[in-house]
């Protein structure tokens, strides 16, 4: 269906996520990351509220991120196993580039639901920009996204972590995942 590999449609059709643990250097340089974030911000947004924001976590900050997540986890689950802690440590260290996307709803007559939809769209745009530059991205939430302590390290009480978006170069071919049967997700309205 998307045979013309030079077409923009083909670019959209070939995007797929990489597992963040399989993403290695090179990651985007500073200019490329700025481009990625500019595209992410170019997102449908009812009321021009920019109800999202992006927090870039540097490679040199991963140890601090791991400590933040692990300390928060231990407070919530004092009997955490070594395996659980190692998984959180690995979470914080994977992939060369990392952007935390925050849902940051603004006081407005625009429903929060619509503002959150815009945040999801910003994440998707970010992943498309990543792909257009020849990298792969992975959008993870997991336990850290739902921890108020972790959220407080990046944002304020009314904000939520929409995801940790990891970016890098795949160290192995990306898996394609089954896509929905279009007949199940598309229908024609029959009034
Ligand atoms: C909001 C959100 C959170 C996600 N969190 C996780 C996660 O924590 N762990 C995971 O394995 N996949 C997670 N995923 C799924 C992957 O990001 C990704 O969509 C999927 O692995 C492959 O889909 P793709 O190739 O179309 O991008 C999440 C997806 C979304 C939209």
From TrEMBL:
Cofactor note: Binds 1 FMN per subunit.
Major enzyme class: oxidoreductase
Cofactor(s) required for function per UniProt: FMN
Molecular functions per Gene Ontology: oxidoreductase activity
Keywords (A to Z) from UniProt: Flavoprotein, FMN, NAD, NADP, Oxidoreductase
EC number: 1.-.-.-
Domain of life per record: Bacteria
Chain ranges of the Nitroreductase domain: 14-168
Residue positions binding FMN: 15-17, 42, 46, 139-141
The UniProt record lists the keyword Aminoacyl-tRNA synthetase: no
Pfam families (alphabetical): Nitroreductase
Membership in a protein family: Belongs to the nitroreductase family.
Protein name (Swiss-Prot/TrEMBL): Putative NAD(P)H nitroreductase
Species this chain originates from: Sphingomonas aerolata
Lineage: Bacteria, Pseudomonadati, Pseudomonadota, Alphaproteobacteria, Sphingomonadales
């Amino acid at each position: 269906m998307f045979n013309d590999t030079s077409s923009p449609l083909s670019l959209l059709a070939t995007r797929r996520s990489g597992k963040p643990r399989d993403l290695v250097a090179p990651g985007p340089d500073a200019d490329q990351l700025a481009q990625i974030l500019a595209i992410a911000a170019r997102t449908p947004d009812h009321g021009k509220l920019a109800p999202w924001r992006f927090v870039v976590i540097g490679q040199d900050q991963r140890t601090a991120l791991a400590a933040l997540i692990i300390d928060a986890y231990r407070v919530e689950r004092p009997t955490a196993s070594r395996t659980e802690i190692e998984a959180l440590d690995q979470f914080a260290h994977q992939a060369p580039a990392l952007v935390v996307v925050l849902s940051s709803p603004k006081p407005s007559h625009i429903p929060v639901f619509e503002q959150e939809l815009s945040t999801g769209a910003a994440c998707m745009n970010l992943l498309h920009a990543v792909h257009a530059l020849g990298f792969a991205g992975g959008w993870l939430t997991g336990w850290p996204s739902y921890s108020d302590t972790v959220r407080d390290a990046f944002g304020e009480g009314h904000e939520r972590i929409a995801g940790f978006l990891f970016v890098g170069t795949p160290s192995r071919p990306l898996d394609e995942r089954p896509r929905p049967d279009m007949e199940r997700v598309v229908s024609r309205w029959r009034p």
